């Protein structure tokens, strides 16, 4: 029996696809399953539908990981007499957990669009719509030189300050002289009431996530030897981020739109929807924007990026027609459009997510990707 627990698989997935990146309307994370239960096999799919649930049960997996949420909208019950409730009951009875990474996987670095770009042979340069980096503060504290510095440093670190990437307890310290005059009612740790005091102090600087500001300030007050510690909290400027919706990438060499469209069709699973392109077949394509899933909302970002082509799913007729019309004006080039099936554009992510679990858990669980086409369109004429 596997000694790997469901909680360990969840931790690996949530490290790669942080839940905080999900849109506020989204529903991500563990849908059913016991985090304490062992997991030996995991199946990855775009959708939790009858066919992928059948596959999970037949393959003796203990966890089904999907991109699309089964329960996206609020429900008041999951009775087995409803379509989605029936699927959940089958999973639970079969001992199979269900976990979803949706818009958090869309914006992660790497995420859904990185997998799509990789399938098309693109070298990723940047997000199409960059998400702001997590906002940071810097706390600057003035601590009397001596043992107090270590105590304050440890307290601030424990509260969340000083974390940079894979490092913790990061700080910078400089020596200086502090000055203060205690008045009546004060109880100074150093010096006397009514007497000007000059003390050798250390200026201690540490960064912190903005949402940890209150906890860090409280930790400073609780660990500092002074009755009224002197400190500054500075809001740092917003930094560029590799996270966000979509990706901009580049082919090794330009190729005509007709050939690029064939490249897209060959790289993705075949669907009844197929692959459609809008633009001059001979137009050279090298710099490309991609967006896994419905990318209609990012069309203006693709135009602003000045790419040669935009690959996404679910493009609507009128915005596409207006886009082509705008591109017909002199001096206003717009990218060619390549429209693919929603499911097909997100399917490459399944292998990426499986690799996340493989790397994090050292191959202690067997990961497999479903090849069942769950695109709702099943007939193409």
TrEMBL record:
Top-level lineage group: Bacteria
UniProt-listed Gene3D superfamilies: 3.30.70.120, NIF3 (NGG1p interacting factor 3)-like (3.40.1390.30)
Keywords (A to Z) from UniProt: Metal-binding
Keyword rRNA-binding (UniProt): no
SUPFAM superfamilies: NIF3 (NGG1p interacting factor 3)-like
Pfam families, alphabetized: DUF34_NIF3
The UniProt record lists the keyword Lipid metabolism: no
Subunit structure: Homohexamer.
Family, per entry: Belongs to the GTP cyclohydrolase I type 2/NIF3 family.
PANTHER family, sorted: GTP CYCLOHYDROLASE 1 TYPE 2 HOMOLOG (PTHR13799:SF14), NGG1 INTERACTING FACTOR 3 (PTHR13799)
The protein, known as: GTP cyclohydrolase 1 type 2 homolog
Organism this protein belongs to: Pseudonocardia ailaonensis
